[in-house]
Specification:
496 residues; 2 domains; two-stranded antiparallel sheet; 2 strands; 69% helix; globular; Sugar_transporter_CS; MFS_dom
């Protein structure tokens, strides 16, 4: 363990200052704690990243038939296009997310969006399947970095009370981005019904993304992270920037270092590598953040396999055709149908925002997993006897969409950024996101095979089991983080 001489613990923690309600010299005291301009700026720029994630990932699905025709893709190449972004997220969440613990939150907050813009521009100019696949993978790398980084820049900048709602409010813009992607795809195809309309879909996001990159240069860095690196003077300056008010409060920031021993006055440098996630102090947090998220992604991406069934029943089937007008018409129908389904995803996220600070993360995640299992059970019942009770199937999938976004889809993301100490928060949240995406990538490749070999009803039953296991794992490794943001490791004792 490396040790450097440091001053004895004095002053307050960063979170103490962020949570403190201002009291001015004339006796004026606020009854609640409003966010400062800098806090709102950080939140807004993080929101933009989640919005682009939903927008671009969804548009890839909308554009897939156009890409298929443009590049004459075979079945194997279609699988690569479908999984490339997910695989990029898997790699990016661990490799780039962990870099936020080394180079800082602000540095990676900027770098990930630059990477996103570069590959987005390259994709609009792609002239080959190989270039297309590389660009989709690169976009996934940037989005993978954003999973932990966007969460950290928000959670380390806002008050403990209300943090869950703010993080989930940003996360909701994934679904809003997906809805806007549907609307954008419909608009572009209506105005320009050509095979290369997919280029204009992706190009539409370039200028807004460049504006977001520019804005991220003008936010303060995480004082939590600076303290974890022993850079107290810089942390004090960044805390002052974060809490800039009129009139100013606090006028003076004097921080303590939680890594300084109270007895010796010596700073114990925290270890920063993936292996630390599995030591006695952190393994419970790692299991909680990773296993339920993995199980949740199995169900979420699995349901995507059945979406065309719902669309066919609710919108009608378009006759198979290979000409340009027929392909464009199919894409328009799919976009309109998905736009309908995404509405309930947004409703689920809004419910999570309203309930997370009242009910807590763990309770919502468990209830959500059980609700997902109930929705899948309704869908399975609709297929009994080889029939297709479409109203029951539709009801089951709609219940699933609502419960997953109120529960595990939202809460796994939130918990992954809260249960780890500051020094390894990027590694922890990144590892959890990448472990979850193993399930997503496996689903993308294996589900078409399993559908043919064991059938739809058996697959639905498997997803029910996965959801119930998610509820059990959440309870077994429960750590309630409501009102808590850890600066030091979690012990093996459950926090409930």
């Amino acid at each position: 363990m490396s040790q450097v001489t440091s001053k004895l613990k004095t002053g307050k923690t960063v979170q103490d200052y962020i949570d403190e309600i201002p009291v001015w010299p004339d006796g004026t005291q606020l009854t609640k704690l409003p966010l400062t301009g800098m806090q709102w700026r950080i939140w807004s720029l993080a929101v933009a990243g989640k919005f682009f994630e939903g927008l671009v990932v969804f548009m890839t699905g909308v554009a897939l038939p156009l890409l298929d025709k443009t590049f004459h893709l075979g079945a194997y190449q279609n699988s690569i296009v479908t999984a490339a972004t997910l695989f990029g997220i898997l790699i990016g969440a661990t490799l780039l997310g962990g870099m936020a613990d080394i180079f800082g939150r602000k540095t990676m907050f900027i770098a990930e969006m630059i990477l996103f813009v570069v590959f987005l521009v390259a994709m609009t100019l792609s002239q080959s399947f190989a270039m297309l696949a590389v660009c989709l993978f690169g976009i996934g790398l940037a989005l993978g970095c954003d999973y932990p980084t966007a969460h950290m820049v928000i959670s380390e900048a806002v008050p403990s009370r209300g943090r869950g709602g703010l993080v989930l409010g940003a996360f909701a813009f994934q679904a809003i981005g997906a809805m806007c992607g549907a609307g954008l795809g419909i608009l572009i195809l209506s105005v320009y019904p050509q095979l290369d309309a997919w280029r204009w879909m992706f190009a539409a996001a370039i200028i807004p993304a460049i504006i977001v990159v520019t804005g991220r240069f003008f936010v303060c860095d995480s004082a939590h992270w600076l303290v974890s690196r022993g850079r107290l003077k810089e942390a004090e300056a960044e805390t002052h920037k974060l809490l800039k008010r009129e009139p100013q409060y606090p006028k003076v920031v004097a921080l303590q270092d939680p890594h300084v021993s109270e007895h010796s006055g010596v700073r114990e440098e925290p270890k920063r590598h993936v292996g630390v996630l599995f030591n006695k102090e952190n393994r419970r947090a790692t299991y909680l953040a990773s296993i339920p998220w993995f199980l949740q992604d199995l169900s979420t991406y699995g349901i995507g396999i059945f979406t065309p069934v719902i669309l066919a029943a609710t919108l009608g089937t378009v006759a198979a055709t290979s000409d340009t007008s027929g392909i464009v018409n199919k894409v328009l129908m799919s976009a309109k149908g998905t736009l309908m389904l995404d509405v309930l995803l947004v409703v689920g996220i809004l419910a999570a925002v309203l309930l997370v600070e009242r009910a807590g993360r763990i309770q919502l995640q468990i209830v959500g997993f059980i609700g997902c299992a109930a929705g899948l059970a309704l869908a399975a019942l609709s297929l009994i006897g080889g029939g297709h009770d479409m109203p029951l199937l539709f009801l089951g999938f709609m219940l699933f969409n609502f419960m997953t976004n109120m529960g595990p889809n939202a809460q796994t993301y939130l918990l992954a950024g809260e249960v780890f100490p500051t020094a390894i928060r990027g590694y922890g949240a990144g590892f959890a996101a990448s472990f979850a995406k193993i399930g997503a990538v496996a689903t993308a490749f294996l589900f078409p095979i399993l559908l043919k070999s064991i059938g739809t009803q058996a697959l639905l039953i498997g997803l029910i089991v996965a959801s119930l296991l998610g509820a059990v794992a959440t309870w077994a490794f429960r750590i309630e983080t409501r009102g808590v943001l850890k600066d030091k490791p979690t012990s093996d004792v459950p926090l409930t």
